[in-house]
Amino acid sequence: MSLSKEKTRPSWQSKEFDKPLLTANYFGFTPITAPRITASDEEATSHCLSPRHFDATEKAALIRTYLEGNISSLPHPLSLIYRRPRQAGYSLHLIGIPSGIAEAILIRTAVSILNDEGHKNLRVELNCVGDKDSQAAYEKELQNYFKKFGGGLGQEAKESLKKDIFNLFRTQSEEMIQFRSAAPSALAHLSAPSRNHFKEVLEYVEAIGVEFGLSPELVGDKHHSSHTIFAIRSKGPETERAIRGDDFLAVGYRYSKLTRKFGFKKELPMVGLTLESTGKKTGAEKRLYRELPKPKFYLIQLGREAKARTLGLLELLRVHRIPVHHFLGKDKLSVQLQNAEELKVSHLIIIGHKEALDGTATIRNMLTRAQDNVAIELLPQYLKNLNI
After folding, report:
1. Which one of 70, 163, 284, 347 is at 20 to 30 Å from 49 when CA atoms are compared?
2. Is this model's pTM higher than 0.85 or not?
3. CA torsion sign, 252 to 253 to 258 to 264?
4. Same domain, yes or no, for 73 and 162?
């Protein structure tokens, strides 16, 4: 859910917005200033590795800012985006959503930003390493595989795998690529909860409509990443090619483990995506905005099918420049209705189970309670014609 504008923005909230920040706002993301990385953040993540795309220190800085800036007191779930402080690109984060809709929101938003920047031929790669128990079981199985079949590897490769067995997926030598081609899959070692979570993620990603596939090479860093690891890349030539880290335009994963380093007794659900590419911008796209679009409508969704349908609807409305408030991370109708009342919107857009199956939306006038049922593809024009 996007945060409402205040007369005086808090210090952590961004005061100007470029096109990617504007695009992300349509999906509920609030632009903030990039968290400053401190020595304490580096100390908190000293146990983590730093393979490309997996910046634990940057995420630690966000968690600390979340606590110190009193962002934790705001209504959850939270959707945040900022321009990265050290590299070009953007960092998107969802806080407080344990379900697979979080990964789907990040993927949908990143695809829209990349499409705007000229990347049209995109593919989403996914893998799941699961929870703590799943990762431990998988690590043990990989070590057994190495002991049984790694005798023919060169000394450098052996030393690398002894140091960290997951280097099997980080080294792009022909020797290592060939050896991992027959390695056990992380998916075969998922606990029941992790398996169910990944199934949910796949259902939502399928609803987005972008090409996707499974990539066992995506394993992340066991010290701070978990569950689904996902990446977005531009598809190569007609022939398939090996996936390399430098192909990725965006990478995302859950990093809830790090919250324990900041005093949380129970892991706080946190999932983030790093958008590496900023694309080729035209002069118009370089424009900076002082204000974000002000929504007049509130989108309510009820049930998994409705959430899946909503991902596409938000993109459709964005293309037609129709911003809406939404609380996609919440399931309860009462919470969404209360939020809509507080925001004083003129109309509700309701997607329930029946609407999701029929491809329609129910539009309710908040003042008169009159309702219309509208086909999704006709919704943008219907909303534009409302006399508000």
Report:
1. 70
2. yes
3. positive
4. no
